[in-house]
Amino acid sequence: MSARTTLTVRLGGGRDYPIHIGAGILGEAELLRPHLPGRQVMVVTNETVAPLYLDALAPALEGLERREVVLPDGEAHKTLATVAGIWDALLDAGFHRTATVLALGGGVVGDIAGFAAACYQRGVAFVQVPTTLLAQVDSSVGGKTGVNHPLGKNMIGAFHQPRCVLADVATLDTLPERELRAGLAEVIKYGLIRDPDLFAWLEARMPALLARERRALVEAVAHSCRNKAAVVAADEREAGQRALLNLGHTFGHAIERVLGYGIWLHGEAVAAGMVLAARLSVEMGWLEPAALERIVALLEAAGLPTAPPREADGGAMLEAMGLDKKVADGRWRLVLLRGIGRAVVTDAFDRNALERLLGAG
Amino acid sequence: MSARTTLTVRLGGGRDYPIHIGAGILGEAELLRPHLPGRQVMVVTNETVAPLYLDALAPALEGLERREVVLPDGEAHKTLATVAGIWDALLDAGFHRTATVLALGGGVVGDIAGFAAACYQRGVAFVQVPTTLLAQVDSSVGGKTGVNHPLGKNMIGAFHQPRCVLADVATLDTLPERELRAGLAEVIKYGLIRDPDLFAWLEARMPALLARERRALVEAVAHSCRNKAAVVAADEREAGQRALLNLGHTFGHAIERVLGYGIWLHGEAVAAGMVLAARLSVEMGWLEPAALERIVALLEAAGLPTAPPREADGGAMLEAMGLDKKVADGRWRLVLLRGIGRAVVTDAFDRNALERLLGAG
Q: Residue A53 CB: number of other CB atoms within 10 A?
C-alpha cells in the first residue's frame, strides 16, 4: 500500500462518500472542495487542536467564507449547550442551507459538529477531518453523531453521514501515546470481528504502529475504515450486523460506568471488554483457548489492559450492563467470538458462565 | 368517499406509513398498535388539547407504559429548551430505543415532538395524531420536524418520518373558526399546485367544509395528504419538486415577518401570498386573469385574506423575502402558476413586475 489511499463508503441514494487517507493531506483543496455544496464553511475544532492544525487546514478552505467555533477540550463539553452554541454561530454568520460544517479534531469534536450539521436547517453538509486515531478508524465512519445527557452518554443525536473524510495520519504525530494505544484497540477489534488477515497483520506490525510509521498507520486506518464501512453499508441503522461493532463495548461501557467516565479511555475499556467477551466465548466452548491467548498477547503488545480494573467487581459490572442502551427492551444480547475474525451477536449465552467470569456468581 | 379512509405514504426502504383519516378514530387501538415497536409511549401534547382529547386517546394506549408531557400552548414554546425537556422526561422514565413519541395536537406540538423523537437515542418511533386542520393536511406528511431559534423559524430540526398518522376530523369540532379557515388555505394550495379537480371540488364544497361536515372534511384531508405525499415521495429532501409546496410561502413568510409572527395565522399569510404569486403570474402572461379571479373568489369563500396587510409595504416585503431561507445561496426562486393545478418553481420571473406588484418599484 502506498502512503495514501482513498476508500469509498457505499451508502446508495447519492450519499456515497470518500475517505482520503494519507500523510500531510490536510491542506489539499482538491480533496475537499468537490464535496462542499456552497461557499460557507464553519470549522468546529477545540482549543487543543486549533493551534496545531487550523493553519495546516487553511489552504484547503482558501477563498471560502470561513468561520470557526473553537470548543473547550474534553468530553465534559459534549453537551446540548455546546451544540446550541454552534447553531447560534451558524445563524449569527447568516449561514445558509448550502453551508458545510467541518469537524477538525477527535471523536468528541466530530460527534458534536456532526450533530450540529444534522439539525441545522434540518441538515447541512458535514465533513470530517479526524485528528486522533480513534476518530480516524471509528467515529468518522458510520454517521453516528450526538451529545451526552446527564442521564446517559450519546442519548441525544442523529445519524448524519459526512460528504467526505480527510484522515491525515500526520496529525497523529501530536497524539498522546495513551490515546494512540486506545485507538489501536478499535483497530484490533475490526480484526477480531471479521478480518483475520488484519489481525495477523497487526501481530506483525504493532511495533511499526507504535512507532507511528506513516505507511503502517495509513494501512491500519484504511483496513479499519474498510471493515467498518462494509458493516455499516450492510446495516446503516444498527438493526443487526452493525451490532457486531459493539464487540467488547457492552463490557467496556460497564467498566467506564463503574469507574466513572474518563478514568479509563474508551479504547482501554473496550480492550478489557474484548478479553471478557473472548473469555466467555472460551467458557462456552465457542472459541479455542489458543485464540484467546493470541488476543491477550496482541492487546498487551499494544500496551492495552486485558482485564477490568479491580474496582469493577462482578455485581457492579452486571448492574451497569443492565443499563446499557444496547440491551433491547430488557433482553440481553452480547457480541461473542466463534474465532478470530468471526464475531456473532447472540442472546444464547450462558448467564451463569457470565456471572462466574465477572466473579458475581 | 366513505367517512373513513386510509392512505399509504410511499417512502421506500421499509418506511412506508399509513395515514388513517376518519371521524372518532382517536381511540382505536388496532389502527395504532401495529406501528409501535415497543411498549413505551410518550404522549406529547399541550394544555389546550390535553383536557379535550387525552381521554379519548387513552383506549388506544391501554396496557402500554404511557407517560405524558403537557406543553404550554403556543409557538413561543417551540424552542430547543422545550425539546430538551421532552428528552429529560424520556430519560427520567428510562425509555429505550424501542419507545414511541406520540404527538397529540397541532403543528407546533407535532414539530416539537417529532424533533424530540428524531434525536432521542438517534431516532425513535414517532406517531402523529394531529388535531388541527393545518396539521392534518400539512404538518403530518413530509417528515419535517424542528424548533425555532431567536434568529429564525424552524432553523433547528430534522427530517423524521412518522410510523403512522391518525387524523381524526372529529377533533376539528373544537378548532377555532379562524384556525379552520387558515387550514383550508393549505387545502386550496394543493388544488392550485397540482390538482385542478380538488380546486373545483373546493369551489363546490366550501360551505360544507366551513360547516365542518365530516364527510367533506375527511375528503379534504385525504386529497390534501395524497397530493402532499405524492410530492414528498418524489422528493423527500426538498431539492426540487418539493419546493412547489412553498406556493404562497415566500410571500407569506415575508408577511408574517413584517407583521411579527402570530399576528396573522400562517394560513392567512399563505392565502395572501398565493394571490400575490397568482398576480405576478398574470403580470408575466403565464396565468389567465379568469384563473386569478377564481383563486380570489375561492379564498374569499373560505373567509381568507386575498391581499397583504397595509403594514406590509413593498420595501419591507422585499427585504423580508431576501432573508427567506428558501432563497438558495442568494438566488431568488419563486413558485408561480401557469394554470390552476400547475405550479412551477422558477428563477425566470420578472423582478420589475415583482417590485411593481409589491408597490416597491
A: 21
